[in-house]
Amino acid sequence: MRPRQTLLLGLLLLLPVLAFLFLFRFGTNRYALPTYLPDRVDSTQVGGKWRRDTVFHQVAPFRFPSSTGREVSSTELGSGLYIAQFYGEDEASVRVARAMLRVQEKFRKEPRVRLATFVLNADSAKAASLTRLAEQYGTIAGKWFFLTGPPDSVKRLALHEFRLTADPTRLPGAVFTANIPAGRLLLVDNKRRVRGIYDGTDGREIDRLLTEVTVQLYDYEHPN
User: Entry's Gene3D superfamilies (predicted)?
Assistant: First the structure.
């Protein structure tokens, strides 16, 4: 091979390496989480031009009794972010609650991450029943809350705020149809917006949840 050809080949092989080193040193690699549950599209005028912006649903404020006997509000849960689960009398709910243990353990020392399990069964409205569930799953005080309340209030939260698909066996009388299947985990940010939806019975989905919680925390620390 001629020296000129050797030099050209060497440069071609070196360029990708130099590009990688440049991006690694000076570039930024940001992955923004999507936002779910669009409500409407608004048009605003910016610099004389009309711009269309999607307005996303914000979960309405709520307050429910917890397994500790005190009431827990959405403000307390959402000071950082929280993962929401709706718990019924079915095997899927049990599997999802067990998966929540992984989330609790991963972010045990991260005060901005909290977990909320909303118990759908009206018979679990007693504090003693909630306490038994919390003890069964090894919840950490102040980290993972088991919550419930009047059936109509919990049903409204599930169907109208988190827009879960109605299941008449778990939510009697529900007629609301929405775009999130029941049994999902939902990631809610500090602006009360749903930023992630996961199948809590799938280990790969829990891995994605753990990753995306970390991404959301990073975004809090490095705002645009």
Answer: Glutaredoxin (3.40.30.10)
**Residue 4 tokens, joined:** 């000129």
0.85 exceeded by pTM: no
Structure tokens at 157: 């939260």
Contact yes or no for 35/194 (Cβ under 8 A): yes
CB of 102 within 8 A of CB of 202?
A: no
pLDDT tens digits, one per residue of 83-97: 999 998 788 899 999
Residue 96 amino acid letter:
V
Contact by Cβ (8 Å): 62, 157: yes
Backbone angles phi, psi at 3, to 5 degrees: -55, -40
Closest CA to 68 of 24, 130, 148, 26: 130
